[in-house]
Design goal:
Structural class of chain A: alpha/beta
Keywords (chain A): 4Fe-4S, Cell membrane, Iron, Iron-sulfur, Membrane, Metal-binding
Structural class of chain B: alpha+beta
Cofactor (chain A): [4Fe-4S] cluster
Strand order of the largest sheet of chain B: 1-2-5-4-3
Number of domains of chain A: 1
CATH topology of chain A: Rossmann fold
Order of helices and strands of chain A: HHHEHEEHEHEH
Radius of gyration of chain A: 17 Å
Oligomer: heterodimer
Number of strands of chain A: 5
Strand content of chain A: 5-15%
CATH class of chain A: Alpha Beta
InterPro entries (chain A): Complex_I_20kDa-like (IPR052375), NADH_UbQ_OxRdtase-like_20kDa (IPR006137)
Distance between the termini of chain A: 42 Å
Organism (chain A): Methylosinus trichosporium (strain ATCC 35070 / NCIMB 11131 / UNIQEM 75 / OB3b)
CATH architecture of the largest domain in chain B: Orthogonal Bundle
Helix content of chain B: 25-40%
Strand order of the largest sheet of chain A: 2-1-3-4-5
CATH topology of the largest domain in chain B: Cytochrome-c3 Hydrogenase, chain B
Protein name (chain A): NADH-quinone oxidoreductase subunit NuoB
CATH class of the largest domain in chain B: Mainly Alpha
Distance between the termini of chain B: 35 Å
Radius of gyration of chain B: 22 Å
Largest interface: A-B, 49 and 53 residues
Strand content of chain B: 15-25%
């Protein structure tokens, strides 16, 4: 273990430069946010990830935000274990009917002011499952969405662009 | 009911052969033969590989153990019921519950009559049946968990929204103090209606859906689906495409195994391993993007071939990455094996018995860590693996530690496989453009080894070239129930560690 720890001291960091916030994300947020909530939240956000029926691909890329290359926490963004600790709900999946109540209750448990980010094509519009009897077809059918990050799944850089827009907006 | 014992391999090839079935033989059998096969499975003569319905009949995919013979047997269900498989062979229980929820076909004398995928919220009952019931209430049904009786027991409900970045499912622990005496899973939260969406879809849409049944296994699912369609239509796949598919499958396996090794250690509060494994995983995902244009390789395998070729420059980069990773793996192994605080958490934790693993025909790392040496790349085997050399991960310890070691074994195998494939990658075409018209109804089947275990794909294609029915059976169907057994007599706090070492798919089983 010592070798690994020493290596960490000797080598330069793997962490890469941050991408600028995505323009369309900024535009979407500007129309959704009030400056008052921005001041209350400050420059640090706690994120609760909620899987509303995804195939797990979006989760894999959200996980990647924690690795040494993206290092999400340097932006004051961190994943938390409970909606009661969260400012942001990061929701993936086509919102299955079997998850609807759990998502509504998670939203209700998140204190105001709060934002909802729909991650991935399924969460944005239902994706391939939009016509299914088992899906609502998009997160905004159940809770209000403040920011959409598209992709199947969105790459970590796209996720970062959107999330950085949240703290910059 | 008196049940006679017969040789499984005799009964599973009896009955009327179905002429349009390709890949494996399919026979339509009578109830007596159906029961004989169920008895053969219960006696351990064979493994259940899949059980599904199309609303009119039930189909069972079976592997005979001694001769390693594969077949599908079908029982017509004119009165929408069939003799339960799960009554004698428990691995079938959840599959039967799923069949009843989607198609309304009942397993007679089933010991578990509770719904599985249907939580009473779809606004429809039997959505896959010819006549779905639309007067179903769109509200939660009550669900009875299995009773647990005894002094000093308490229940801990967990989920469906969990504390981490993880798929949704509900776990009901019954504990005595910290000790778990029973765990019961309730899944189905990610049910998206994939089978119903597949019915009537084009083959291209079917391939996209198959690639999204479980996002971490998108390559394996796409190969399984394409393989089943290709066997149905008797299509040839160019040699280069066969090797590129295997290359993608091994890259997928590597990324997932590194992710899992890191995450298991992280759940034992050893973040250093997670940090290093996370870096390796990310490098492989970037290599995927460089070689094939997508980090997770979605939609890169198509019917008749692949949709992206790899340039010589990208191949060289990949080779370099494999060399660097090969040098790193012994150091990661040292870090895992020599960290006593980690060993203290993993050794002896969450033991999955070899008897249960064998009974459930449990595939992948979970099976191989408990002595079940099964890998679809070997049996039945498929191209190009017969031309490549690799060893399977193996252990008989069956605990969390064993599952990590088996992953390390398989990481080394996959690194070697990537090198071998790059060495002998044939030139030429990588996509067979023309998908032939079926002309008449066709069926095909494929069994493919994903990082989690064997995936069964079965398709029926109509004369018009559209999908009539597609069955995709995730390895997790036979692993989830073992998780319930493996947690018994462990402490609640070890559950995340155990759960991660299994890493069953929610989306893959909820469909």
């Amino acid at each position: 273990m010592l070798k690994f720890l020493l290596q960490g001291l000797a080598l330069s960091s793997l962490t890469e430069r941050a991408p600028p916030p995505a323009d369309d994300a900024m535009a979407e947020l500007a129309s959704r946010l009030e400056s008052a909530s921005r001041r209350k939240l400050g420059r640090s956000l706690s994120i609760r990830e909620v899987d509303a029926g995804s195939c797990n691909a979006c989760e894999l890329e959200i996980h990647a935000l924690n690795n040494a290359f993206y290092d999400l926490e340097r932006f004051g963004l961190r994943f938390v274990a409970s909606p009661r600790h969260a400012d942001v709900l990061l929701v993936t999946g086509p919102m299955t009917k079997n998850m609807r109540e759990a998502v509504e209750r998670t939203y209700a448990a998140t204190p105001d002011p709060k934002w909802v980010v729909a991650v991935g094509d399924c969460a944005c519009s239902g994706g391939l499952y939009a016509e299914s009897y088992a899906c609502e077809g998009g997160v905004d059918k159940v809770i209000p969405v403040d920011l959409h990050i598209r992709g199947c799944p969105p790459e970590p850089v796209a996720l970062l662009e959107g999330l950085i827009a949240l703290v910059e907006a | 009911m008196a049940l006679e014992t017969t040789e499984l391999k005799e009964s599973m090839f009896r009955g009327d052969p179905v002429a349009h079935a390709r890949g494996w033989p399919r026979h339509v059998v009578d109830r007596a033969t159906w029961l004989e096969i169920v008895v053969g499975l219960a006696e351990g003569q064979g493994d259940l590989l899949g059980l599904w319905s199309d609303g009119e009949a039930v189909h069972m995919a079976v592997m005979e153990r001694a001769a390693r013979g594969f077949a599908i047997v079908t029982l017509e269900c004119p009165d929408k019921s069939y003799p339960s498989v799960g009554r004698l062979h428990p691995p079938a229980l959840r599959l039967e519950r799923a069949i009843r929820d989607i198609y309304g076909v009942e397993a007679e004398e089933s010991p578990d009559a509770r719904r599985w995928l249907d939580h009473g919220r779809w606004g429809v009952r039997r959505p896959g049946a010819a006549a779905p019931s639309t007067d179903a209430p769109n509200m939660a049904d009550s669900y009875e968990f299995l009773p647990v009786e005894g002094a000093g027991l308490h229940q801990i409900p967990v989920g469906p929204v969990h504390a981490g970045i993880i798929e949704p499912g509900h776990f009901r622990f019954t504990a005595n103090g910290e000790l778990v005496v029973r765990l019961e899973e309730r899944l189905g939260y990610t049910h998206k209606g994939v089978e119903t969406l597949m019915a009537g879809a084009t083959l291209a849409r079917g391939a996209r859906l198959a690639g999204r049944v479980s996002g971490d296994s998108t390559v394996a699912y796409a190969i399984a689906f394409a393989g089943a369609v290709e066997s149905a239509l008797e299509m040839k796949v160019p040699r280069r495409a066969v090797y590129l598919r295997a290359l993608m499958a091994e890259l997928e396996r590597l990324a997932n195994h590194f992710g899992d090794i890191g995450a298991i250690c992280n759940d034992a509060a050893f973040a250093l391993m997670n940090a290093h494994c996370g870096v390796v995983r990310e490098r492989f995902l970037r290599a995927n993007r460089q070689c094939f244009g997508h980090r997770l390789l979605m939609d890169r395998v198509t019917i008749g071939g692949v949709t992206a070729d790899v340039t010589p420059g990208a191949q060289n980069q990949l080779r370099k990455l494999v060399e660097e990773t090969k040098a790193l793996v012994p150091r990661l192994i040292e870090l895992f094996g020599d960290t006593t605080s980690l060993q203290d958490r993993t050794v002896g934790t969450g033991h999955a018995s070899s008897e249960l693993v064998s009974k459930f025909g449990c595939g992948g790392v979970v099976g191989r860590a408990s002595g079940r040496a099964f890998d679809a790349r070997r049996t039945p085997g498929y191209a190009p693996y017969e031309e490549l050399s690799f060893t399977l991960g193996a252990s008989t310890e069956g605990d969390v530690d064993a599952r990590v070691w088996v992953r390390f074994d398989e990481v080394r195998s996959s690194l070697s496989l990537v090198e071998q494939i790059l060495d002998i990658l044939p030139g030429g075409e990588w996509k067979n453009e023309a998908v032939p018209a079926p002309g008449a109804m066709r069926e095909g089947v494929a069994l493919v080894e994903g990082f989690r275990g064997d995936i069964l794909a079965w398709v029926r294609i109509g004369a018009d070239g559209m999908l009539e029915r597609c069955q995709l059976r995730d390895p997790s169907w036979f692993q989830w129930p073992l998780l319930e057994a493996a947690i018994e007599r462990n402490i609640v706090a070890d559950f995340p560690l155990l759960n991660k070492s299994f890493n069953c798919s929610y989306s893959g089983t909820d469909l």
